Amino acid sequence: xxxxxxxxxxxxxxxxxxxxxxxxxxxxxxxxxxxxxxxxxxxxxxxxxxxxxxxxxxxxxxxxxxxxxxxxxxxxxxxxxxxxxxxxxxxxxxxxxxxxxxxxxxxxxxxxxxxxxxxxxxxxxxxxxxxxxxxxxxxxxxxxxxxxxxxxxxxxxxxxxxxxxxxx
Length: 168
Hints:
Blueprint: H1 2-17, H2 40-45, H3 48-63, H4 72-95, H5 101-122, H6 131-162
Helix pairs in contact: 1-4, 3-6, 4-5, 5-6
């Protein structure tokens, strides 16, 4: 039921935005830039530093599972990561979208922003030293650093699919 609902909502959003799925035609190269396919080939061609960052980022989000039972902020952070995975594994293929790096950046911005907002608003990383305060500090840094690149890539992607050409 959830994938069906997400499909309908996403499809409706695309129609309302005036974006045709045909706009996502093939012909993109694999890579990690905003308008490149982020696939297995892209991962194999990615710089070692990027691959290490992605592993660290994934481990940081996974570590949040240790805190979801007692800390609502951890639920938001981990929930945003889970929704990202579901979007990439289910929604993007169902909609027939091309998995460009800029689309992934946009998904990060959508689903990770609530967790980052709560981390910055409540600042649990400034509380008494504990495993949770350390994790919350690491997550704040991980999401903030990711957003430095995600904001740029999402803007390039949105400019591309809208045909606006503001960033060309």
